[in-house]
Amino acid sequence: MKNVTSVAPMLQTQSLTVAIGDKVICHDLNLTIQPGECWGVLGQNGAGKTTLLRTLAGLHAPQSGTISWQGEPLPTHTRRDLAQNLGVLLQSESGAPQGDNEFWGSVLEYVLLGRFPHRATLFGYNADDEAIARQALVAVELADWAQRSLNTLSGGERQRAAIAQTLAQQAQCYLLDEPLQHLDLRHQAQAMRVFSQLQQQGRSLLMVLHDTLWVQRSCNRLLLHFADGQVRHGLAQDLFTLENLEALYQCRLRELTVEGERCFVPST
Amino acid sequence: MEQSNTVSPRIFFSTLLIAAALSLVWGLMSGALPLTSAEVWRALLGNGDEVASEVLWQLRMPRVLAGFACGGLLALSGVLLQALLRNPLADPYILGISSGAAVGALAAMLLGASLVFVQLSSLTGAMLAILAVFGLGFRQGERNIYRLLLTGVVLASGCGALISLLLTLASGEQVKGMLFWLMGDLSHPQGLPLAWIVLLAVGAGAVIFSNGLDVLAGGLSRAASLGVAVGRWQIALYFSAAVLTVAALQLGGSIGFVGLMIPHAVRLLGVSAHRWLIPLSVLLGGSFLVLADTLARTLWSPLQLPVGVFTALLGVPVLLWLLSRRR
Fold this sequence. Notes:
The complex is a heterodimer. Chain A is α/β, with parallel strands linked by helices. Helix content of chain A is 31%, strand content 26%. Chain A has one domain: P-loop containing nucleotide triphosphate hydrolases (Rossmann fold). Chain A is globular and about 55 Å long. Residues 1-5 and 94-99 of chain A have low confidence and may be disordered. Chain B has helices at 9-29, 37-45, 50-85, 97-110, 115-137, 146-169, 172-183, 192-208, 210-217, 220-225, 230-252, 258-268, 274-298, 307-325. The longest helix of chain B has 36 residues, at 50-85. The model of chain B is unreliable at 1-5 (pLDDT under 50). Chain B has one domain: ABC transporter involved in vitamin B12 uptake, BtuC (Orthogonal Bundle).
């Protein structure tokens, strides 16, 4: 049997404390993300999940503690080196997918931005980059929209374009903030299939999710982010319980089991 | 990479090169002493008659070169500021640089200073505005850039009040000169060779780094996660745009419309990747301003009208048409 602990961790935090202003959103966090792991992050609105994810991505400075990528602290890596290995999908900055960018180009041009860390020359992208971008568009079922202008797309289509851009980055580790937002059921399933494929290739994922169904289907690790700044993390099978989720969301839930799949809905 | 649905950028570029050449030749032919294209050609080759050569080299050549450079500078500055401020309304004057320059120029005019001092004073005003907006409004690593934008807009409106005050204090004769400065006028260009160097150098640099500009347009946090040093890019963009604007102000005062609308015109025709947007905007802005300036100095000849009037009169209908054409 393979010894799992001998594999170098991808992303690791040591006594990480994150704050927004004076509000501590997570305290003394020691997290290790190994290759092939899929982490689900659950928590109430405003618990600080996005800020934690931005911190892990090196976009928000922690109050104390360190974050390491493959054993070396984040600041010792160049931005480009990190961007080649760490794919980050953020929620649109204004909250609405329409308002967050001034990007006037086509969908394909938008997805090609994901090749920026890998570009061979300063001036433009080559045929390989374009092939990778087109593959990513196929994966989110947007191949026929490649030449459409990005700002003519609907919210869900834009979200899929953003996922395609992150896929085109061909990273080793993906940090995804609500990757399923605005997606219909079919495209939620499609996106989750793509993420599972990444996991099977030995890449690791950490995603903020609100739908417990997808957590139970896809995640083997869980991070529960409580509103008071407490964080519990571990194996999904240990933490994915009615008591934990009721404490997390501070409301009464009902557990449903359909053909062996468990999910949780608010009780009426 | 192929482009979306509309005009191919290569064809667009070739068309604009021809348009630029035509606008320059037309500018050289037109004036109080009309020259034929053959006369222009002979004078350019150095074997024209004396009067034609004198008019061409002493008067018209500097004028059309100043017009072209000024249009290119303003359009390029507009492209960079729209990328920096992530706002389609950004233009070279939005951050108060031209307002600072105008206060400087008008104050010198009120004191009856000579042309050189008016220019120096406007340069000083522009520099102070650039440093004030940057010092007060820029925070490294901020997730949005509204503070910089608002600081610039507030400073510009403050300068607007000073400009009104200066216009009220001035005598009737001075007011006319001041209005020409405010509306933009290419009859006393300063620092023409330097302006061309600035245009070519900043333009080349912007094209070389155009991929990064595209990434910035896709969102600031996303750009950071793709490996762009956002803070450093913002500083570089701000000062590049400021230098371009100052060079344009020295050539023609604050000529409106070009910096705001030329980049949008290029985008509305279907080109938005900065690699093409930059050269196309420079060519279109330059040709457009030469055209507008030639009309301004010939239409009511010998009366010379301020070129800013024509940039708006010609440009507004074209842009409204482009906007309505696009759903």
